[in-house]
Each structure stands twice: as C-alpha cells, then as structure tokens.
Specification:
This protein has 511 residues and is an alpha+beta fold. The strands form two sheets. A six-stranded antiparallel sheet has the order 4-3-2-7-6-5, sandwiched between helices. A two-stranded antiparallel sheet has the order 1-8. The chain is elongated.
C-alpha cells in the first residue's frame, strides 16, 4: 500500500517545472519561506524561545501592532481592563504557541493579500486563518505532547489553493469551475489542472521552505469514509489539519452551521477520531467563530465576500467580453443543432487524460499539439480546426496542422500578419482571452473579423479562438469553426477542460 503521507516525486517534478518556479523562485516568496521557517523553529519549551519570539515580533512594527491589537480584543482582555502594551505581556496572555501561529498567519497575509486577485486570495487566506483556529482549539484537549503544533499544520493545509490563487489565478479558476460543476472533488480537479493535488503542492512548497517533516507530512490527504482514532501524533495532526480546513470551509459558507447537514457529515466522518459529539462540535464552532472575529478585527480585515468578480479580458470590446467562455448549458445525449456533441465534457475529459499521458511519456511537441487539436475537433463538433503559430521568417501567423473538411486548402490560406491590428484574432491574443463566437453574422462581430477570414471562411457561423500566450509572448492560437450558429455556448466544466488542454500545449511549447 502506498504511504499517502509521502510526496509523490513524479507529481512534484511536474509542478516544479512551472508553478514551483513562480511560487518559490521570486525574492518575496523566498523571504516569506525563510521567515516562516524561522518562526516555526522557535521552541516554546525553552526560555530563549519566548525571548526570540518577542524579539522577532518587536522587530516588525506592523506585526507588533497586530499582536497587541489581538491581545486587547474582548476575548483576551484582562479582568481589570488594563491594556496590554508589551509583546512579552501579550505572549504571557495569549500563550507562546498562539502568538507564534498568529505571527505565521500574518506573514501569509502580508505576503499575499496585496495580490491583484485579492478577492480570491482573501477567501483562501480566511480559510487558512480559520483552520488554524480550529487546530488550536482541538490541540487544547489533546493528550499528545506538542499538540499545539497542530494549529500550524492546519494553517498550512490551505497553502496550495492560496498560492495558486495568488500566482496562477487562471488555473485556480479552472479548478474552481470543475468543482462547481459537481463532477470532481477538489483533489481530482487540482490533479487534472496542475498535474498534482493541492496537498502535494503544499508539501512540495513546505519542503522547499525547509519546514519540519512532521508539518510537511500532516498536509497529506486522508482516505474516504469515517476517520479512525489515530495511533500516533503525526497521524492525529493529519486528521486535525484535514478536519480544520473542512470546518473552515463550512464556517465560511454559513453563519449558523449548528445542526446543518454539512456539520453532521463532518461529525460523522471525524467525530470518533477527534472525540467530537454534537455538543462538542457546536461548542467548537462557536469558539472558532468568536476567535475568527477577533483575529480579523486585529488585522483590520473585513470578511471576504462570498465570491469575487472576475475580469476575463481587459481591453476587449464589450461584444468580445460577452463571447468569453463559461456560458452555456450542460446536456449529455445526442448533438446540438450546431453539431456539437452533448457529451462534449466526457470527450474533453478523455482528451485531457490522453494528452497528460502523452506529455508524461516524453512525446514530441507536435504529437501533443495534434492530440489537443483532435480532441477539440471531435469533442466540440468543428467543421474545420487548426493550430496557427508565429512564423518569424515571414512575419505571419500560419496554420501548422489542420483537421476537417477541405483542411488542406483551408490550412494553406489560414495566415495573417504578426503586426497587430484591431481585429478579433489580435484582440484575443493581446488580452489572452479564450473566445466562443456563437453567431459570427452578428454585425458587431463581423466588424471585428479581418478580411482574410471573411474571404477564406465565408460560411463560418460559429467558432472558437484559444490564444497561445506565454508570459506576454504571443505564440499563436487554436481555431475551430462550424457552419451553423452555436447558441448552446460552453459551460464552466467544459471551459475548464478546454483550458487544461491549452495549458498542456503551452507547457510543451514553453522554452
């Protein structure tokens, strides 16, 4: 049996090639990892541990202010009402481990909350903060020595989604779309889009940051079904980390979780292992909600909104903004009048799996591109589909591979200048916006079609454009069309799979 607590080496290698470089490669993230490792290493059992923590906090004025503010919230205010004005007193009042975990949480907030995708990042930050509070409450009643470390394990349990939301927001949206469609778990969706699960990503990052193995192993996922009583401290911390994030997600969705089906399901899964009956579960949720309010108040953070608006393509005309993917209904049998199969999602999923295996086996770039083109052509019912790449010698984007009716002639004519003009294809690449044009005869769309396209494909009534952009470098695009309108659109789960296919090509094309 495979030990799930170990980081799968092959998955870690796939992530490090792109995402790990972003997450750990820049200076700010390196500094964050170094700071986190330093705080985690501080030992509470020795006098110098408290001194070191106090010195570390005092050296950061913003952190000092937040810790003092937390010490003076209603939850911790002294009986006599005397204000807490020193960090040493704050550590005495809050406890060493509480201050240490709070300092770690604030490091994450400071490093990531300024992301341009602040709405999504804030949701994930709050989940991490809340999970750490759940872990802290469970540690108070544990018989395991050093149980307080569970709060740190719980804090980092949400590190994967947090980092992806901050550094690879498009991938974050794709995973969320798959989960929202109700056909994939978070683990399945993250594995599909990233090439590894969120937990594996967290383990890889924490390993890069040189955190203790016990904390790294605690990020591993648990098996399905009811959780049994832990036989060791490490196993118990894995259980606490998993439960803490699950409960944090629930508390983010509702202000009155007591007795809800979700709360009862969590109790059924974790109750025996963590000694949580209905009364203890309700008391735990109430205590965490109170602590969360105080923590957010001390950080001067407003609770995150339930969802954050997305900007699919800045700089696009309104008519193209309306044409971006993620709109459509999901049906399963037969074909639409446009010719698109109603089981497109299943065909796309099979294509993603095939392409993933191709890349893992070391296949050539052309093989990967052709496999993606074949999947798009068949799964979406296109009449003609091609991949168009930049040709530096001629100064044009040219079709390199093509499938469908009269593909040889159409491939030869499918070319346009690299020099940008304000047409639909250049706008899509400039904004890196995936487009599904459901009615190409619309006057506003037709005005954005270049003359070469109208001449070459006068009967194209609906088509898709998937730009291939790495960083700000425009490499080309995928194109597929039909001779009929396609009012059914592209629903979120299909969109996520299409983006996953495109992502495999971008990874293969990247230098």
């Amino acid at each position: 049996m495979t030990d799930q607590s170990q980081v799968p080496e092959s998955a870690t290698r796939r992530v490090r090639a792109a995402l790990m470089h972003k997450v750990c490669g820049d200076q700010e993230m390196f500094a964050l990892g170094a700071s986190i490792a330093r705080v985690v290493e501080m030992a509470s059992s020795e006098d110098h541990g408290t001194h070191d923590l106090a010195y570390y906090v005092v050296s950061d004025p913003a952190l000092t202010q937040r810790i003092l503010r937390l010490s003076n919230t209603i939850q911790y205010r002294t009986v006599g009402g005397t204000p807490v004005t020193t960090i040493s007193r704050a550590i005495s009042l809050l406890g060493f481990d509480n201050v240490r975990t709070t300092a770690l949480a604030m490091l994450l907030v400071d490093a990531l909350d300024s992301s341009e995708h602040a709405g999504s990042v804030r949701l994930e930050l709050e989940a991490a903060l809340c999970a750490s509070l759940v872990g802290r409450e469970l540690a108070r009643n544990s018989a395991f020595q050093g149980a307080e470390e569970a709060a740190i394990c719980a804090l980092f349990k949400n590190l994967g989604p947090l980092l992806v939301a901050s550094h690879e927001h498009e991938r974050y949206r794709e995973i969320g779309a798959l989960v929202a469609a109700g056909k994939h778990t978070v683990g399945q969706a993250s594995q599909m889009i990233l090439g590894c699960s969120y937990e594996t990503l967290a383990q890889a990052v924490l390993t890069e940051w040189k955190l203790p193995d016990q904390i790294v192993r605690a990020q591993a996922s648990l098996g399905p079904g009811p959780v049994r009583v832990a036989a060791s401290r490490g196993e118990w911390m894995r259980q606490v980390a998993a439960f803490s994030l699950d409960l944090a997600r629930l508390l983010a969705r509702t202000h009155e979780p007591s007795g809800s089906p979700e709360a009862l399901a969590l109790q059924a899964r974790y109750g025996e292992a963590l000694e949580l009956d209905r009364i203890r579960m309700d008391a735990l949720m109430a205590a965490v909600q109170d602590s969360m309010r105080g923590l957010l108040e001390s950080m001067e953070m407003q609770p995150a909104p339930k969802s954050a608006p997305q900007d699919p393509g800045r700089g696009l005309p309104n008519v193209l903004l309306l044409a971006t993917l993620d709109a459509g209904e999901d049906e399963q049998e037969g074909s639409y009048p446009s010719g698109k199969p109603k089981n497109a999602r299943d065909l796309l999923l099979a294509g993603v799996q095939d392409v993933t295996q191709l890349r893992a086996s070391g296949s050539k770039v052309n093989d990967v591109v052709l496999a993606v083109l074949e999947t798009l052509h068949g799964a979406l019912g296109f009449r003609f589909a091609t991949v168009c790449l930049k040709d530096a010698r001629s100064g044009k984007y040219r079709a390199r591979l093509a499938l469908g009716a009269d593909s040889a002639r159409l491939q030869a004519g499918f070319a346009f200048p690299v020099l940008p003009t304000r047409d639909l294809f250049h706008l899509a690449m400039e904004n890196n916006a995936d487009l599904m044009i459901s009615d190409a005869t619309s006057p506003k769309i037709r005005d954005l079609l270049p003359e070469w396209h109208r001449d070459l494909l006068p009967d194209a009534r609906s088509f898709i454009v998937l730009p291939l952009v790495v960083g700000k470098v425009q490499l080309g695009l995928f194109y597929g069309d039909r001779t009929t309108d396609a009012p059914e659109g592209v629903p979120p789960d299909e969109t996520a799979l299409i983006k996953a296919l495109k992502g495999q090509v971008l990874a293969a094309l990247a230098p």
